[in-house]
Specification:
The complex is a heterodimer. Chain A is mostly beta strands. Helix content of chain A is 0%, strand content 53%. Chain A has strands at residues 4-7, 10-14, 19-25, 31-37, 44-49, 55-58, 61-65, 71-76, 85-92, 103-104, 108-113. In chain A, the strands form two sheets. In chain A, strands 2, 4, 5, 9, 10 and 11 form a six-stranded mixed sheet that branches. Chain A is globular and about 45 Å long. Chain B is an all-beta fold. In chain B, a hairpin with a 2-residue loop joins strand 5 and strand 6. Classes of the chains: A mainly beta, B mainly beta.
Chain lengths: 114, 110
């Protein structure tokens, strides 16, 4: 059974600071997805990365996929209160059409203090 | 708004009871997934339906069952409820590699 560990579990920082959160898997990812979940809402997909070493940017968010495809990081520059939420990494079995159940990580709960 | 709807938003019930959670996927999406989110277990996959047929099963208890109807809406039935079943239950529907989650149903078992 694949285990996805995220760190830190909780992170509280001031607005304007930079931060990095991590996701580590016990086995190779099929493809890795990052989600953000705000209170009272379901998770929302931020990005999908497939290739080892891949880097994707989404405005102030930078996602990096490890060369061995077993780890990933999410870096936020100049954090804003709107970035507050639960960040979840997930393994998505991209090549298993029709059976795309997600395996989620333990999550990082991020709070940005104005 | 993801386009996935779930009802009810909140549900409070007693141990031993049975409840039904309802989900309507986005228009055109054939797959429906159910997930459970609790503080100790995180977000876990329960079951998937594709166009009315069960496609994949996760860590779903025997007391839980689901179905997908011809109009593609889905229901998750939870019976003989225990305190530990208190959690958020999410439904998602998918198109290609992206899953769209509903707002969830918060179940509290007293």
């Amino acid at each position: 059974t694949q285990l996805l560990e995220q760190s830190p579990q909780f992170l509280s920082i001031q607005e304007g600071e930079n931060l990095t959160v991590y996701c580590n898997s016990s086995s190779v990812f099929s493809s890795l997805q990052w989600y953000r979940q705000e209170p009272g809402e379901g998770p929302v997909l931020l990005v999908t990365v497939v290739t080892g070493g891949e880097v994707k940017k989404l405005k102030r968010l930078t996602f990096q996929f490890g060369d061995a495809r077993k780890d990933s990081s999410l870096h936020i520059t100049a954090a804003q209160p709107g970035d507050t939420g639960l960040y979840l990494c997930a393994d998505h079995p991209t090549l298993n059409f029709g059976n795309e159940k997600l395996t989620f990580g333990t999550g990082t709960r991020l709070t940005i203090i104005p | 708004d993801s386009g996935v709807t779930q009802t009810p938003k909140h549900l409070i019930t007693a141990t031993g009871q049975r409840v039904t959670l309802r989900c309507s996927p986005r228009s055109g999406d054939l797959s429906v997934y159910w997930y459970q989110q609790s503080l100790d277990q995180g977000l876990q996959f329960l079951i998937q339906y594709y166009n009315g047929e069960e496609r994949a099963k996760g860590n779903i208890l025997e007391r839980f069952s689901a179905q997908q109807f011809p109009d593609l809406h889905s229901e998750l039935n939870l019976s003989s409820l225990e305190l530990g079943d208190s959690a958020l239950y999410f439904c998602a529907s998918s198109r290609l590699t992206e899953q769209f989650f509903g707002p969830g149903t918060r179940l509290t078992v007293l």
